[in-house]
Amino acid sequence: MAKILCVLYDDPVDGYPATYARDDLPKIERYPDGQTLPTPKGVDFTPGHLLGSVSGELGLRSFLESQGHTLVVTSDKDGPGSVFERELVDADVVISQPFWPAYLTPERIAKARNLKLAVTAGIGSDHVDLKAAIDAGITVAEVTYCNSISVAEHVVMMILGLVRNYIPSYQIVVDGGWNIADAVSRSYDLEGMQVGTVAAGRIGLAVLRRLAPFDVKLHYTDRHRLPREVEEELGLTFHASTQEMVPHLDVVTINAPLHPETEGLFGDKLLSTMKRGAYLINTARGKIADRDAIVRALESGQLAGYAGDVWYPQPAPADHPWRSMPHHGMTPHISGSSLSAQARYAAGTREILESWFGGTPIRDEYLIVDGGKLAGTGAHSYSTK
Ligand code: NDP
Predict the structure, then answer these.
(1) How many domains, the chain?
(2) Residue 211 belongs to a domain with what CATH number?
(3) Which domain holds residue 366?
(4) Which residues have C-beta atoms less than 6 Å from ligand 1?
(5) Which of 69, 137, 141, 308 lies deepest, with the highest CB count within 10 Å?
(6) Per-residue pLDDT tens for 87-137?
(7) What is the pTM of this model?
(8) Residues 263 and 363 in one domain
(9) Which among 119, 97, 94, 83 is positioned nearest to 50, based on CA atoms?
(10) Has residue 382 been placed in a domain?
(11) 48, 24 Cβ separation under 8 angstroms
């Protein structure tokens, strides 16, 4: 029987919710590319309830315990004395979410002698050292597409929030003021702007589709080009590289995975090639942007705004400069963990575990590493050097 170690974020400070703002979730059968939503044999949770925090347990306890497995759930994940580090030594399966990542470093993987499967309850497995996982024969899987649309919606919200100066205007209301000049002196229309995405995968393409009705000019760069029909339908301009694309843009949104090709991509050099007053939205991974270079660009006015929900490390320390830099619209890492998304990634995690324990293949699109190499979605979108 297996030991499953699940790392989840803390419950709300006022306790696990007894009631919710809404009674149900819309029914969605398929994702935009036709892929089906997770199809586990059953679920033991109510869609729309909080599943991603410790008491929610991703709705997995009765399923796992009924099969004789042991489930350990904790939010205590960092440092040598943490519950995660202690329990990892004999865990067979680790489950963690990008919002509250259990970093599986080479050192931790070396200590985890029984570890065979690392599941990301979400998308983005960069908290796992993929090279070390490959060397140790660990399978890495994530719930591809589960929250791509959730993130795309957050990106659109953040673009509009920055360009229209929403957050400072809201603050004026909260503070009892009515100073219109202060609010509008940094407020513009998005219409007509040049907007581009670094990567046009599931999230990037969904962002482009959602922005098209705003009458903006759309651009993208990616390692693989989109079908010609899609380029024509959305009026997309393709650029061969990020470096070539960003000088043309008023708004840049980053939607690529973090891997050696993208780490530190938005540093002083690339930022200096952007238009003065451009906006940068990064909901992909914090490390794709150079922390201090972003602060400098906002302070000098090179960037008019920066928003996103991804940081390094996570949780971000209280003195992280992105909390206090000017003209930012940061949130904690929430975009992919709406209650809607949680229902999908909890079901997807269960589907992966049903396949794993049932000895049937995990869906190819959920695989990142398998059989000692990048596999499935991992082989398409990631690199290890
Ligand atoms: P996809 O795998 O669908 O898309 C990723 C795209 O990035 C692919 O089209 C890939 O290209 C492209 N890409 C990879 N490397 C580069 C590069 N160096 N330059 C340009 N393009 C590149 O993933 P999603 O769209 O679903 O998710 C993207 C990322 O967003 C995730 O990896 C994760 O880090 C982040 N994310 C954040 C969330 C949040 O809550 N904030 C939630 C979910 C995801 P190709 O495949 O053509 O090689």
Answers:
(1) 2
(2) 3.40.50.720
(3) 3-146+337-375
(4) 122-124, 147-148, 151, 198-204, 221-224, 255-258, 261-262, 283-285, 309-310, 333, 335-336, 377, 380-381
(5) 141
(6) 999 999 999 999 999 999 999 999 999 999 999 999 999 999 999 999 999
(7) 0.97
(8) no
(9) 97
(10) no
(11) yes
